[in-house]
Amino acid sequence: MQFEKDRLLSITKAGAVCALCGQSLEEESKHLSVLVDVSPNEGEGGTDTAESHEGPDDSSAGADKDEARSDSQLRRSDYHRECWAQVAKADYLSFWLAKRPAPPATPKMSKQERNTILLGLFSALMKSNEPVDEPAKFVLSHLLMKYRALNLKGSRLDDNRKKWILFTLPQTEEEFEIPDIILNDQQMAETLQKISAYLEKAQVEAVITREEEAAVEEEAEE
């Protein structure tokens, strides 16, 4: 029947949050979903539990029941697996394990974009005299040398016998001196993680900026 088709077409896509705990489902690859029959009189919070009523006119009761059924709506709810145990025995029409599409991958940045971002971070760090920034300077300078964004010029010992590593920026021949320090495995991992997080954040911001610029151009063309 037409109203059945309309009801099926009214089923929404997966929600963004769990219907029970309210936490995001965006990172879930799979989650439980249910379909509930909601009558107009019960609103969003109820299900269709219509029962037959005894009365002198059975045909009238049947007609009322059919009319109520035609007016009811199908509502979809989505749940975290951890929350499913609390609603598994609820009154619903059906349930299934839903698969969420993977979020769109962030476009891969070019080597030039990566080097530009890392050089900007390196330039900012070189303006700092804080000892806490020394590990990042050391690791980042060697990364940029690996990416051929900096050249290794040599090293020197100062009056206190402290070793400094000399780097140059190929485009301008600007020189940078980095203290030669020894990092343990944990310090190295933490420093690389911070640099990676900075790079990922800058990459996302660059994508957002490009999308905003594209939207402005489209509006201008219109």
Task: Report on this structure.
The chain is of the alpha+beta class and 222 residues long. The protein folds into two domains: 2-99, no CATH class; 111-221, no CATH class. It has helices at residues 2-9, 58-71, 81-87, 111-126, 134-146, 185-221; strands at 30-38, 73-79, 94-99, 151-157, 163-168, 175-179. The strands form two sheets. Strands 2-1-3 form a three-stranded antiparallel β-sheet. Strands 4-5-6 form a three-stranded antiparallel β-sheet, with helices on one face. Strand 5 (163-168) and strand 6 (175-179) form a beta hairpin. The longest helix has 37 residues, at 185-221. It is elongated and about 85 Å long. The model is unreliable at 43-66 (pLDDT under 50).
What keywords describe this structure?
222 residues; alpha+beta; 2 domains; 3-stranded antiparallel β-sheet; 6 helices; 43% helix; elongated
**Helical proportion, percent range:** 40-55%
Strand content: 15-25%
Low-confidence stretches: 43-66
Number of strands: 6
Quickly count the domains.
2
Q: In this structure, how is the largest beta sheet organized?
A: 3 strands, antiparallel
Strand order, largest beta sheet: 2-1-3
User: What series of H and E elements makes up the topology?
Assistant: HEHEHEHHEEEH
The helix-and-strand class reads alpha+beta
Summarize the structure.
This protein has helices at 2-9, 58-71, 81-87, 111-126, 134-146, 185-221; strands at residues 30-38, 73-79, 94-99, 151-157, 163-168, 175-179.
